[in-house]
């Protein structure tokens, strides 16, 4: 039982009362959405005591806290997860059943909070879950986008984006906190002056535009420990006439301008993943939430402490990729201009407070702001960046005398641009990659110069995922079964899942394990039937690739292999073939042409294959529309095979790979990102590994690429598939539809190298690995052992482990315990 107040009857009464006061209805009259709202308000009410108690405990302990700064928090739905972490899920389910309400239906009424694109945003969400569960004081700081990640519709095989109006019905879990609003200033000019009162030198910003930042708080409930941390996301509002300086009062133009800026600034999440577009509004978003968050952090610190020079004793700031890096100069500004510290004092504080995580080596993802834009928008911040750069380059020249090449390579300001990654590394006291391989590539390739100059900053923190959402909530059948076998310790200590290894040779246990997989496949099959109108056979192999659509993730390799299998089945119907269902789910950035073409290709192949009666349903292809956290939970639970087929070296870590593993799906993948560590844990015999190694890829890249035409002309089956992109087979006779994809593989007319992602190069080895998957699956005993070994070996990949490492090596936090409120 969660707390004394959590009596079933009291809860039921609260739901009834909420329906009555919110909608003037009774339960029978209320719509499912109204029930969702009423239930959620009742749940929030119960959370509230612990939320207050937690913040009070932090205050009393005066504990150090981490501020996790992120442009993205891909939270998904809150209701089910909150109930899980309150350890009240089953009781609430029962209570609602007694009122004739199905909790699953209620949960489905909640829109996903999709304030993120993919891996980086979901990682932030898993981290918050772990921080609360592990009793660490933490604040997530981000933006309350009016529109989150777009909704994806598939029309005639094409992706169509529609706005994600997730706040339409109101968000029952958030708290608007108008009284903690902060002003953020953009543009204008700065001049140097003397303070009329103190006579000290000061910087005065004039003719700026102001926006008011309004915080909304969302509770982050820890598992069974009464800790509730806060995710604070900022909304923007114009400064009203009343709040304008006397000088500006009644300036109509100015107030309209400010109104417009405010509306725009938090309007929408940029839906680019791993692609920097250099939009001015994005820089505004970054400065907006960083300035508001840092002002709040400082104010909170100063309530208890008078010496801001010791800020780092109570605060760690983690920058989730370069997106929040403007935190470095903004903290300097606050410390110097507002708190009166010297440059040296402020630099000492900043460089002991800020730490940076790198999530990608894709060069097109690097944030480099044009200096003219940056300095116009943030004039005072730009001055500070210049000074950071000037002082850093003195150090570089001292260390490498006469080496101006080094200076060019390492400077923050170069070639008319502000290089945010360089600033993050120079100012951060820690720089971490997100999987072992990724960190090694950072140290020895991408960030080599920085590693040589400051090796002590570099460290690895292999990513993780929360088993509370991705097993306990997403796969309740398996969760119960595991608890039955080994107890429930795994929920907060995933290493214990290793105890399942004792059952791998137990035939009965394996039968039960596979029976649960089957039931989850039936659940997914029903979802597919409902959403796609396609019948899939739960006895077929469910082979799943779900992740953002990107060339380096190679969905194209997967679908071309499906085309290859289809050719073989058509040609040799007599050859035995184990039925296979290929499931895809992926959003493409709206302007990413090749990615969108790939979605169309997948859907076209699906149309042809699914409607070809001659193949007896041996092959099915399904594209899951609008892949997001909520349907991801169903997909992981139901997968037999986890497709993790990125070009080696390109996927920093991957976290979907871990979610599949946890749910008992062996990895079919390259030696990339965290796949390497998955193989370390589960054993190479329990995975299907193929393709070039990262060294081989990097070596080719350093020597002008490779020649795909050779493969094309020497492997007729590959040639046939490539030609089918151009012969209209999957385009109703249209020869142009996939021309761009075809060209990306073979054509050197395009200025870049052909097949930069080594699709043809890895094709044969992928097809061979796929053949091995089929062989392994046919052997039920062998497969069930493999599947179970994956679940049993997934202990390392909990975000609880990752967070403990961040705490030990970077943040240095202490646990704070919260006493439950008794009545
Ligand atoms: C500026 C545009 C932009 C937007 C998002 C650039 C880069 C990003 C992210 C860094 C992309 C991302 O989500 N990266 C993923 O981060 C995960 C968490 O660490 C890793 O598991 C994935 O491998 C990595 O692709």
TrEMBL record:
It catalyses: [(1->4)-alpha-D-glucosyl](n) + phosphate = [(1->4)-alpha-D-glucosyl](n-1) + alpha-D-glucose 1-phosphate. The modification N6-(pyridoxal phosphate)lysine is found at residue 659. It is an enzyme of class 2 (transferase). InterPro entries: Glycg_phsphrylas, Glyco_trans_35, Pyridoxal_P_attach_site. Its cofactor is pyridoxal 5'-phosphate. Allosteric enzyme that catalyzes the rate-limiting step in glycogen catabolism, the phosphorolytic cleavage of glycogen to produce glucose-1-phosphate, and plays a central role in maintaining cellular and organismal glucose homeostasis. PANTHER family: GLYCOGEN PHOSPHORYLASE, GLYCOGEN PHOSPHORYLASE, LIVER FORM. Belongs to the glycogen phosphorylase family. This is Alpha-1,4 glucan phosphorylase. The lineage of its organism: Bacteria, Bacillati, Bacillota, Clostridia, Lachnospirales.
């Amino acid at each position: 039982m969660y707390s004394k107040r959590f009596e079933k009857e009291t809860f039921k009464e609260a739901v009834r009362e909420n329906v009555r006061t919110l909608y003037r209805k009774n339960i029978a009259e209320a719509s499912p959405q109204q029930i969702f709202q009423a239930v959620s308000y009742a749940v929030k009410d119960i959370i509230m005591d612990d939320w207050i108690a937690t913040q009070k405990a932090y205050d009393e302990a005066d504990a150090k806290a981490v501020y996790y700064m992120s442009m993205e928090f891909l939270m998904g739905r809150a209701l089910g997860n909150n109930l899980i972490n309150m350890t009240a899920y089953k009781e609430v389910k029962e209570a609602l059943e007694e009122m004739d309400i199905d909790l699953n239906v209620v949960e489905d009424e909640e829109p996903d909070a999709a304030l993120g694109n993919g891996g980086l945003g979901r990682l932030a969400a898993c981290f918050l879950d772990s921080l609360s569960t592990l009793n660490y004081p933490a604040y997530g700081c981000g933006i309350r986008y009016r529109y989150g990640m777009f909704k994806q519709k598939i029309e005639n095989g094409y992706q169509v984006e529609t706005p994600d109006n997730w706040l339409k019905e109101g968000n029952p879990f958030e708290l608007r906190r108008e009284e903690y609003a902060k002003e953020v200033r953009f543009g204008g000019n700065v001049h140097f002056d003397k303070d009329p009162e103190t006579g000290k030198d000061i910087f005065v910003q004039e003719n700026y535009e102001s926006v008011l930042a309004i915080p909304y708080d969302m509770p982050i409930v820890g598992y069974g420990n009464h800790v509730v941390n806060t995710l604070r996301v900022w909304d923007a509002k114009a400064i009203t006439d009343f709040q304008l300086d006397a000088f500006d009062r009644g300036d109509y133009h100015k107030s309209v301008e400010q109104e417009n800026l405010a509306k725009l600034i938090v309007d929408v999440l940029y839906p680019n993943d791993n692609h920097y577009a250099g939009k001015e509004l994005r820089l505004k978003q970054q400065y907006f939430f960083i300035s508001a968050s840092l002002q709040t952090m400082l104010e909170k610190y100063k309530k208890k402490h008078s010496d801001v020079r010791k800020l780092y004793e109570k605060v760690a700031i983690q920058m989730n990729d370069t997106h929040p890096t403007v935190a470095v100069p903004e903290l300097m500004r606050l410390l110097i201009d507002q708190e009166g510290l010297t440059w040296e004092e402020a630099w000492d504080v900043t460089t002991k407070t800020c730490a940076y995580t790198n999530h990608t080596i894709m060069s097109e993802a690097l944030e480099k702001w044009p200096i003219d834009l940056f300095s116009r928008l943030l004039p005072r911040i730009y001055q500070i960046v210049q000074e950071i750069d000037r002082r850093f380059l003195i150090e570089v020249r001292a260390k490498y005398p006469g080496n101006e090449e080094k200076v060019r390579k390492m400077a923050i300001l170069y070639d008319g641009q502000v290089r945010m990654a360089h600033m993050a590394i120079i100012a951060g006291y820690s720089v971490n990659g997100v999987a072992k391989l990724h960190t090694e590539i950072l140290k020895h390739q991408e960030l080599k110069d920085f590693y040589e100059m400051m090796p002590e900053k570099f460290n690895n923190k292999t990513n993780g995922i929360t088993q509370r959402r991705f097993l306990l909530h997403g796969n309740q059948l398996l969760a119960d079964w595991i608890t039955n076998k080994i107890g429930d310790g795994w929920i907060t200590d995933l290493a214990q899942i290793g105890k399942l290894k004792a059952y791998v040779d137990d035939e009965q246990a394996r039968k039960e394990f596979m029976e649960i997989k089957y039931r989850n496949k039936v659940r997914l099959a029903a979802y597919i039937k409902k959403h796609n109108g396609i019948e899939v056979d739960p006895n077929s192999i469910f082979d799943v690739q779900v992740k953002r659509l990107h060339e380096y993730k190679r969905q194209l390799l997967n679908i071309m292999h499906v085309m290859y299998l289809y050719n073989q089945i058509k040609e040799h119907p007599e050859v035995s073939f184990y039925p296979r269902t290929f499931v895809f789910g992926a959003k493409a950035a709206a302007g990413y042409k090749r990615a969108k073409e790939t979605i169309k290709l997948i859907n076209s192949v699906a149309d042809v294959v699914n409607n070809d009666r001659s193949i007896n349903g041996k092959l099915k292809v399904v594209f899951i529309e609008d892949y997001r956290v909520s349907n991801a939970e169903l997909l992981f639970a139901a997968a037999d095979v986890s497709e993790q087929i990125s070009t080696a070296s390109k996927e920093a870590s991957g976290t979907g790979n871990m979610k599949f593993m946890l749910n008992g799906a062996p990895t079919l993948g390259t030696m990339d990102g965290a796949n390497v560590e998955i193989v370390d844990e589960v054993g190479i015999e329990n995975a299907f590994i193929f393709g070039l190694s990262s060294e081989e890829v990097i070596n080719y890249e350093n020597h002008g690429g490779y020649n795909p035409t050779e493969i094309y002309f020497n492997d007729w089956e590959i040639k046939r598939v490539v030609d089918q992109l151009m012969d209209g087979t999957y385009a109703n006779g249209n020869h142009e539809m996939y021309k761009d994809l075809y060209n990306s593989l073979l054509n050197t007319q395009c200025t870049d190298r052909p097949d930069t992602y080594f699709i043809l190069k890895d094709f044969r080895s992928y097809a061979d690995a796929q053949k091995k998957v089929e062989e392994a699956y046919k052997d039920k005993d062998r497969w069930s052992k493999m599947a179970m070994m994956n679940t049993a070996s997934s202990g390392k990949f909990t975000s609880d482990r990752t967070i403990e490492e961040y705490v030990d090596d970077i943040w240095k936090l202490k646990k704070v315990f919260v006493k439950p409120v008794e009545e």
